[in-house]
Amino acid sequence: METRLEDEVAFEPPEDFVAQANVSDSSIYDEFAANWPECWERAADLLDWDDEYEQVLDDSNPPFYKWFTEGKLNASYNCLDRHVENGDKNRAAIKWEGELGETRTYTYQDLYREVNEFSAALRAQGVEEDDVVTLYMPMIPELPIAMLACARIGAPHSVVFAGFSAEALATRMNSADSEYLVTCDGYYRRGDSLDHLDKANEGLDGVDHDVESVVVVDRLGGDGFDRDLRDNQHDWDDLLAEHDGHRVEPVERDAEDMIFLMYTSGTTGQPKGVKHTTGGYLSYAAWTSHAVLDIEPEDTYWCSADIGWITGHSYIVYGPLALGTTTVMYEGTPDYPECDRLWEIVEKYSVDIFYTAPTAIRAFMKWGEKFPESRDLSSLRLLGTVGEPINPRAWKWYHEHIGNGECPIVDTWWQTETGGMMITTLPGISTMKPGAAGPPLPGIDAQIVDTTGDEVEAGRAGYLTVNKPWPGMLRTLYNNDERYISEYWEEYSDTDSDDPDDWVYFPEDGAKIDADGYITILGRVDDVINVSGHRLGTMEIESAIVGVEGVAEAAVVGGTHDIKGEAVYAYVITEDGYEGDSDFHERIIEGVNDAIGPIARPEEVVFTPELPKTRSGKIMRRLLEDVANGDELGNTSTLRNPEIVEEIESKVNAQSD
Ligand code: WTA
């Protein structure tokens, strides 16, 4: 397998991996197809239910599907209590590594204790079942503790990525009517302490309703910033001390009760509140962790994503903890203090399974082999990727230099909305083809279709659709059933029908399929840019830029980028009397920073007197993308101002020289 890597197009899973894999019999595909939807009992069986469910799927009112109807369970119980009760209380649940090198290990017993105490503290703050609690925290253990405490008392959490701005926090708290916030004083990035509470406070100032209570974790200790907590703000440690030793009975939740909300970018400027439920989501996260990530309780498993995104929810917290394994959490960046930091962690904790994003792999490639080579990575058994397409060269590099040619790789396609993995090879069964995610998982019915909904031939590009519901799917957009239908279903469904066969989920990705049924994802077909695996809406960025004083109009597109996959390119028309100089440039970057966060910062800002528009006044983004990518310009004949494209192009070339 190690020979002629360059021209190899397919890889088989190694025999010793297959021999120990959780799923290794390829009959599972037929079995699930023949026994659908009852096949999903396999997923539900991974959990402990307080009350058995009656029906696996209720599809009487599509696309408002219900899974495991009348079933009752608690996610915190499934992630903690049952492992403590089953004799695994001394197994490490979380191994945390801070950026400065400090470490903390929580056994299942430790985590159980702290989650109980924090559940009691939340109740004492007035949090009741179904209240949405916003968690605005970086990668510190208190984040999963707070998530599980919310789940324990049946209060859905809404985690806001710590890198998002104050304004983004306020928008999300407003949208969810959330009256409770858990945050922290700060955290470390590349050795410096960052002031997080300042940002949180600014966000709180933008909340349009009363906020009952804010809990603040003291992350920085002596490095903390000098300031007093506000009246409704409480110190995490004080609250835990007040509730020392308290136990809180896990609340029985209906399978269809909300477990959490997660905001994600879409086509409009308003982020969408994706609603996930307790029974379906947790079963699906656990099942895919078992079948795809091959997690066993004895493993040390590490997903290097941030819990602020769905990947961290499903595959740092809920899936791995439901299976009772050890999950590693790292606070910092991969290149601090050196570019071998991640490999140092793999070595130190003897990590068995490692799950990361292609953007990280491209950065590792750039830094060079010497970093992984300086560490012992022989504990690794399985590798995974998620978030964006992985190019075959990066796949092979990962396979060879991290996996030593011996670990299967799962390239997992899924979304915030799908709750868990949908398209990927099964590591103990399938041939791997670098660049192609693989076939849909057993029980998942996906197709590649043309604009009319007909299946395209093998090799042709089309649109990815999912034709049957699955347990981990979103149930709706928070308080917005209409937008749920228009965003995900309208395109390919007969929305007047109540026959579930007439309803087709549209993830808004382009894709192609080969003769073996392997799907290659080509990327988003809506106005979403995928920067380093993070979804950003062009409209959100445009509205941030238009909010900067002196900007008349802006258009934002994604252009390809060596490391980030895609980067943000902004084209800006200034108002009369404003000069497109470096100072203005800086103000635009700052404007995006303040409205969304550093991840959305434009790679390039190009000032232009006009934007390319059709005669009806629509901005031709496709042409701006051609410019950003340095591609030959597409057809400009439908423009009312064709000359502007070349003008913009020559400006871009001048800027990048
Ligand atoms: C993209 C992240 C190619 C895709 C879990 C999707 C991928 C969006 C892959 C969802 C993959 C995710 N190959 N593209 N393996 N995984 N994507 O909601 O465009 O942050 O629609 O969820 O990421 O991003 P989200």
TrEMBL record:
Domain Acetyl-coenzyme A synthetase N-terminal, chain residue ranges per copy: 28-79
AMP-dependent synthetase/ligase domain sequence ranges: 87-470
GO molecular function: 3-hydroxypropionyl-CoA synthetase activity; acetate-CoA ligase activity; AMP binding; ATP binding
Source species, domain of life: Archaea
Any one GO BP annotation for this protein: carbon fixation by 3-hydroxypropionate cycle
SUPFAM superfamilies attached to this UniProt entry: Acetyl-CoA synthetase-like
Alphabetic keyword roster: ATP-binding, Ligase, Nucleotide-binding, Plasmid
Residues of the AMP-binding enzyme C-terminal domain: 540-618
EC number: 6.2.1.1
Family: Belongs to the ATP-dependent AMP-binding enzyme family.
Protein name: Acetate--CoA ligase
Organism: Halogeometricum borinquense (strain ATCC 700274 / DSM 11551 / JCM 10706 / KCTC 4070 / PR3)
Taxon lineage: Archaea, Methanobacteriati, Methanobacteriota, Stenosarchaea group, Halobacteria
